[in-house]
Model the fold of this input.
Amino acid sequence: MDINRTETTRSSCRICYNTCGVLIYLQQGIPFKIEGDPSNPMSKGILCPKGYASLEYLNHPERLRYPLKRSGKRGEGGWARVSWGEALDMVAGGLERAKERYGPLSIVFIRGASKGLSDDLLARFTNIFGSPNITSPAPYCFVPGARAAQLTYGYYSYADYDFGPKVILVWGVNPSSTNPYDYEEIKKAKTRGTKLIVVDPLPNELTKMADIWMRPRPGTDAALGLGMINVLIRENLYDDGFVRQWTVGFDQLSDHVNEYSPENVEEISWVSAEMIRQAARMYALGKPGLILAGNGIETNVNSFQACRSIAILRSISGNLGLPGGEVKYGLPGGLIRGDPIFLCQENIPHEIREQRLSKRDGLLPINYYVLPQSIIEAILEDDPYPVRAAYIQAANIITQWPNANQTHKAMKKLDFVVVADQFMTPTAALADVVLPVTTYLEFDSIEQPWHFPIASIQQKVAQVGECWPDGKILNELLRKLGFHHYVWEDMNQCLDSILRPAGITFEEFRKIGVLVGQKRYRHYEKEGFETPSKKVELYSNQLEEWGFDPLPAYCELPETPYSEPEMAKEYPLIMTSKKADVYRHSGGRQIPSLRSKRPEPVVNIHCEMARRLNIEEGDWVFVATRRGRIKQRAHLVDSLDPRTVDVDYAWWFPEMDIPTLYGWDQANINVLTDDKSSSNREMGSPNMRGICCKVYKAG
Done:
């Protein structure tokens, strides 16, 4: 046997939602190097710093390696090791007690940012268990855009880089940090002469190469989108043939955007009227063109309406279905992500589903997940009914949910809390039972990201301690709870059932590696659009029937100089935030190679504003709102609007001890955000960007 022989396994990185293809190199069965997979049709060999740090995640000494039960008071840091059998008994018993005493509505199931198949398996578990109260970041991440597209033209469209767009509009997303595949495609397009428009309050790698950089006031994207629609219509830059044949409601839209002239939008958004016109002309005249929109527009009261305005821009410009524009794809191998049958959605009776938290908030009836802020209210105030137990999967909600102090208070009030995660976090430290979860290197799976039509292989190459994948945990819990009809013999049976539409088994999929959906250019010419009218619904009768605005409109955010001018005298700056390329939300701060690149929380302040505030480079400063203050290191820049500050996101300190909950409240931006003020009508998106704050030097 050659002990130096290297073997290679093809897999998918699932540290973040991108699901980039990876090659895992092993010696004597032990992984020692990970690289991007050039043969992956989506990521094409690209890998971000998080992906390159995969082995640090796998082998980190602070990984949770076996189940733990709390000993002592909640949050004191006392833990006792238990077997999986004991842990499952405790979890099943805690959930059953709450269900028997208070009913299934009293238990909430919470997941964090997308983990792919694990997300679907948690949704399946909750439906079988009988609680409709499941939540995720959906109200403020990806889903507002997906729902807006669905209600406008019936599907989620994908960028067609292969054909060669003439103009790319990047809106509220920094792909150099969050999607390196898109970033590389945009860079290649730029070298071929593609025009680039970027809409972002904050500078990034793309703003440096943009032909036009629009720098709006955070949270005003809906107004900006409507202003661009105004220009396309008033200057006859829209695709007249497509609009006449394939849309409904154009006349109503035309009348509606009269109030969103570039001059009016300039007052709202801080973007000059002339720049709005230039951007609209460049986009409309540069066919084929595409819009890459991201999470930056989904975290305030205008989330859904901003996404609707972008969907309408795609439509009236004639770029839907166009090679080099916005294309519909077929399902990869016929696999349906989030299939209601697989999720067992019909297991919950309609009368129970109608009682889910957030139902009375009057959101879109097609919303599935309940709102985090509704969960907190139910826990703290028993309104509309008591919530007594929580199962939390890969979610550090104390750093991720708005108004972190309220989330912390709610966590301490619950009777029973289970957290399944890879590391101890501020949230896990408040649990009664902590379950150790595998990294992507430790289990087989089929992964389907939402943002690209692909199904990718994920293959087990390692095992750390007694860690289990989420799917196995949930499957064994179903067994403990007596739902034997829904229990798989092993997880391979689950994977085989998912692949059945493709006509293959998981063992066969190991050799295939990926399934990719096929592009369907101008698909609507044969079958129309997937809407009630079979056309693009600029004016949505469906939204009107449900009691929502049939045309997108801008609503001023709470806690801004425009909505609360008196408050703005004390809090004169506008706060926003972004994601760092080295972290995934709150994850990764214990990983040495990642932490070394961004060791401290940093707030970016314009040089002139810093001079007025007597703040110098590297000073520790407080950032404060009505709800509290946090401390971050000041970095002075000249590329921000002086009225805007860029506050670092999702910070906690793994190097601190459990009794402090790892300093969860020291630099965490969600100490500053609110869960009580008005949220988006359609999705319930809370206001996490674009609110007033003040900055001052720390003593």
Summary: The longest strand covers residues 628-637. The chain has a mean pLDDT of 96.
